[in-house]
Amino acid sequence: MQDNPKNSKTKLTELGEFKLIDHLTTNFNITQASTKLSIGDDAAVVRHQDNTLISTDLLVEGVHFDLAYMPLKHLGYKAVIVNLSDIYAMNAEATQITVSIACSNRFTVEALEEIYAGIQKACEIYNVDLVGGDTTSSVKGLQISVTAIGVAEEENIVKRSGAKPNELLVVSGDLGAAYMGLQVLKRENEVFKVNPNNQPDLSPYAYIIERQLKPEARKDIPELLEKLEVKPTSMIDISDGLSSEILHLCNSSKVGVKLFEEKIPLDPMVISSCEEFELDSTTIALSGGEDYELLFTIKQDDFPKIKANPNLSVIGHMTSEDVGKHIITRAEQQIPLVARGWSSIPEQE
Ligand code: ADP
Ligand code: MG
Questions:
Q1: What domains can you pick out in the chain, each with its CATH number?
Q2: What residues flank ion ligand 2 with Cβ within 5 A?
């Protein structure tokens, strides 16, 4: 009889908390000069010459992720990415993270190793140091909280509140793919439950699935804008869907907006999968969420500097607040822009 691989897994209690932290973090390197003291003391020590930026996110199993279709390594990677995205959205450089984990005894040492492999990959790719965290048990499920630390010169920091009427609204990359990737994964998970021998061919959906399972943060966009000598007047990252992020910029900046439906950047695979799922691709881009693209405003004079760049799309312009917040459809209808979280999109039958 073959060994049941489950039997070879190591219970968390076999290692104990201190050995576990050591075990999980031993391969992490420190690369940032600003990291003065890392894991192993009561607090990490970081010295930045300029402003320090801090951002935290908490991911809860069953609310923010489902381990039925989220591999643990990807989960670790994504937990870091969503936080780095917030630092880049301030036009800052991310330098350190801390990671806090609560998990039930259903998780093994090997499971946590997978999560930390993903965390380490993100640290290497984005050049951030893991400098601390906390580890504890939970009654049920897995929770991961990441805090990202960054640095920026005062005059470079871009807030949500700086947009002015007539400025252009710009977005990086394309939208809606992460949500459509999730729809494919959910569908395949249902099929798998009915017939576990069914091996689905997911290769036609590679891009949208990758956008859901392995999103990237747009570290390159603040760097690109600096090179182009464009300083955004306001900026936010797209975690909850384009419409709600646009409304955040409008409300913080006290301006209105005209968004043009035909300008919203969509990957061909988003368009084809929306057709397959009978969803409207504009609705998905507006409400889908988890795209982690950057949304920002620029002065009209800066338009020539960005217009040829394939990473950036001008999707509208800001107006005075009293004009309101609207989307202009392809049929040239003007419709009020409303915030709808991704959870409010009707589920597919
Ligand atoms: P304390 O009792 O002071 O909270 P801990 O025993 O929780 O200390 O942590 C010891 C060291 O290990 C600290 O430097 C802490 O930042 C780090 N650490 C604890 N848990 C994690 C984790 N999940 N990931 C990374 N570092 C961690
Ligand atoms: Mg602790």
A1: 12-156 (3.30.1330.10), 168-177+213-336 (3.90.650.10)
A2: 134
